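Summary of Year 1 activities. Much of the first year was spent building the evaluation harness for sequence design. The harness presents a backbone, in tokenized form, and records the residue chosen at every position. We chose the following record to illustrate the format because it has been used consistently in internal testing since the harness was completed.
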């Protein structure tokens, strides 16, 4: 059985990395390593010149750091993006799918095993897992927050409808920020999503 994947959390437009401490603590208790990316645009000293491109670069740096750390253990990385964070996260994962990293490794005579298996995004409470159903080389998934007052459930379902039919989905009665209001419940759902993705890829016995 493969080692447990690492999780990279990508905040929304106003959240800082500390907001993920509760769910990260829960995942640590479950045996999952994790990290949280700090968006360059959040709290920027010069907002006029700090935006999407800088956020993509910041997420990419955090993701590549995790990938390099996980390569020796052949573990996967799950990207969990919340709300606005799903936009720069989608750009940050480009070129980092399993197949793309394998091709790059062959071209450079290297051995690389760490790669994102999922991209979870939360627009509202939901967490879109870009990793469970295939799109762009990644598995995909979506976690709905039924009591999200920022993004209605109907809008969340519209977002999720763009994912492959065999994508992972889960739903619970959470607000826009379940990592703060229901960290243990979210940790459990993320564990399920990771196991679903790995099993689909044939990495779980």
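For this record, the design step produced the sequence shown next.
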């Amino acid at each position: 059985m493969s080692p447990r994947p690492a999780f990279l959390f990508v905040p929304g437009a106003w959240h800082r990395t500390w907001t993920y401490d509760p769910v990260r603590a829960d995942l640590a208790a479950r045996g999952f390593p994790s990290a949280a990316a700090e968006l360059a645009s959040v709290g920027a000293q010069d907002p006029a010149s700090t935006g999407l491109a800088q956020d993509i670069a910041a997420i990419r740096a955090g993701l590549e750091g995790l990938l390099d750390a996980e390569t020796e253990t052949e573990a996967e990385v799950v990207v969990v993006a919340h709300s606005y964070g799903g936009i720069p996260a989608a750009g940050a994962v480009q070129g980092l799918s399993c197949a793309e990293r394998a091709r790059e490794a062959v071209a450079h005579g290297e051995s690389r095993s760490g790669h994102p298996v999922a991209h979870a995004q939360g627009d509202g409470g939901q967490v879109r897992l870009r990793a469970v159903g295939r799109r762009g080389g990644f598995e995909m998934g979506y976690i709905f927050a039924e009591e999200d007052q920022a993004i209605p459930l109907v809008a969340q379902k519209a977002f999720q409808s763009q994912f492959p039919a065999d994508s992972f989905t889960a739903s619970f009665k959470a607000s826009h920020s379940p990592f703060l209001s229901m960290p243990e419940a979210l940790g459990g759902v993320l564990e399920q999503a990771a196991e679903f993705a790995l099993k689909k890829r044939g990495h779980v016995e």
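The two ends are 6 Å apart (CA to CA). Quantitative recovery figures across the full test set are reported in Table 2.
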